[in-house]
Each structure stands twice: as structure tokens, then as C-alpha cells.
Design goal:
Helices cover about 55% and strands about 0% of the residues. It is built from ten helices and no strands. The longest helix is centred in the middle third of the chain and has 15 residues.
Length: about 160
């Protein structure tokens, strides 16, 4: 094994090889494992990457690792995908609903402003046992929401959207 990609991957260097729980760790393992085990079993592997390209830069045989990881991510969420075993298995109903809500919020400036304002006011009061936070807060601290949004801070400091 070469391992050049492992030595340069920001995710691998921070979490180490033991967290992968499969035979092949690191960026190359994120490609091999889902294809050997199937996306239904190892579909989270391609998502453990920033897609920064550091691995591709140092690969002596020029494997396009970020491109392959992006392709596996696409295969994981498209039900019609048959290129990889388990294709389309990554998107749950709750995730589809969540992304649908996110899309609606970001498609409307008013909805975005209202939702960010509400999260700033009430987001820190959300209990950690809520379904979407429960998995996260089992091993981490609950995220803290800023009292003021980036847009509010920019406006206070004299920036505006009109300057282009």
C-alpha cells in the first residue's frame, strides 16, 4: 500500500484509521469499501471527506479520489443507480424531508431570514433528545446558535448587499 493519500487527508489525519471499521482506511478505503461491501453497508465512507483534493495531488498514480468520492455520494442517493451495489440506499425519508425543507428555506429570502432569526432566538433552547439532535448529542455537545446572524453582523459593521 502506498498511503500517500492517508498522510495528506485532513479527515484521516484527525480521526485516524481505527474509526473506519473496515479493512481499507483513508481516502482509498473510502472508494474501495463501498464498492466491495455495497453502499447499503458502507455508504457513509464517501461522506467522510472534505473533497479538498489533497489526496489527488499526492497520488503517484493520479487516482482522481475526490471525483470518485463525489460519484459514490451521487450513487448513494439516487434510487435508479445500479452501478454500485446498494445504490440509492442512503436517503431516508427523514433526510429527504429535511433536504426538502432546507431547499424551501433557501429558495425564499423571507423564509431564510425568518428561520435564521428564529434559530438565533430559540435554537439554543432545543432539547438534545429531539430526533434530529439525539444521534449527534449522544457523543458531542449540542451546537450553539449565534444570537445574531452573519447578515446582521455585516449590516451593523456597514456592509450591504448593494455593493457589488
Amino acid at each position: 500500500r502506498c498511503a500517500a493519500c492517508m498522510n495528506h487527508c485532513p479527515v484521516y489525519t484527525r480521526v485516524g484509521g481505527h474509526t473506519y471499521s473496515f479493512t481499507y482506511p483513508g481516502p482509498i478505503g473510502k472508494i474501495l469499501t463501498p464498492q466491495m461491501e455495497g453502499l447499503d453497508c458502507a455508504g457513509d465512507q464517501p461522506h467522510a471527506s472534505t473533497l479538498c483534493g489533497a489526496c489527488a495531488e499526492v497520488c503517484p498514480v493520479q487516482i482522481p479520489i475526490p471525483d470518485l468520492l463525489a460519484r459514490l455520494r451521487t450513487e448513494a442517493v439516487h434510487p435508479a443507480s445500479t452501478a454500485v451495489k446498494g445504490g440509492g440506499s442512503a436517503r431516508s425519508v427523514s433526510e429527504s424531508l429535511g433536504w426538502g425543507g432546507w431547499t424551501a428555506m433557501y429558495a425564499s429570502p423571507l423564509a431564510y431570514k425568518l428561520s435564521t432569526r428564529m434559530m438565533g432566538l430559540f435554537g439554543n433552547w432545543m432539547p438534545g433528545w429531539l430526533p434530529l439532535l439525539k444521534v449527534w448529542t449522544r457523543v458531542r455537545s449540542k451546537p450553539k446558535f449565534a444570537a445574531r446572524s452573519l447578515h446582521q453582523l455585516a449590516r451593523e459593521r456597514g456592509f450591504s448587499n448593494d455593493e457589488r
